[in-house]
Specification:
Layout: E1 2-4, H1 12-32, E2 42-44, H2 57-63, E3 66-68
Parallel strand pairs: 1-2
Antiparallel strand pairs: 1-3
């Protein structure tokens, strides 16, 4: 799973679309550069999962990110 995130600057609608575009771009990169057979999903979380405060520029910078979550598939268990 590729998760896109934003800071809290901007409207929720804009940030949702931005976070989804970030995640989709990374997922597409993986799929076109060697992981074409892997199941790669993407999701945008807007600013709902911050890892730092959005009250300071340094924290907002950390929140503008893409996380990669690797989990075993049901068939590999």
């Amino acid at each position: 799973m590729v998760e896109g995130h934003t800071d809290s600057i901007g409207s929720p609608s804009f940030n949702q679309k931005l976070s989804q575009r970030r995640a989709a771009a990374v997922a597409k990169y993986f799929q076109t550069n060697g992981l074409e057979g892997a199941k790669i999903d993407s999701i945008g979380y807007d600013c709902k999962k911050p890892i730092a405060t959005n009250k300071a520029a340094a924290g907002r910078k950390q929140n503008c990110r893409v996380d990669i979550v690797i989990a075993p598939s049901a068939t590999s268990l």
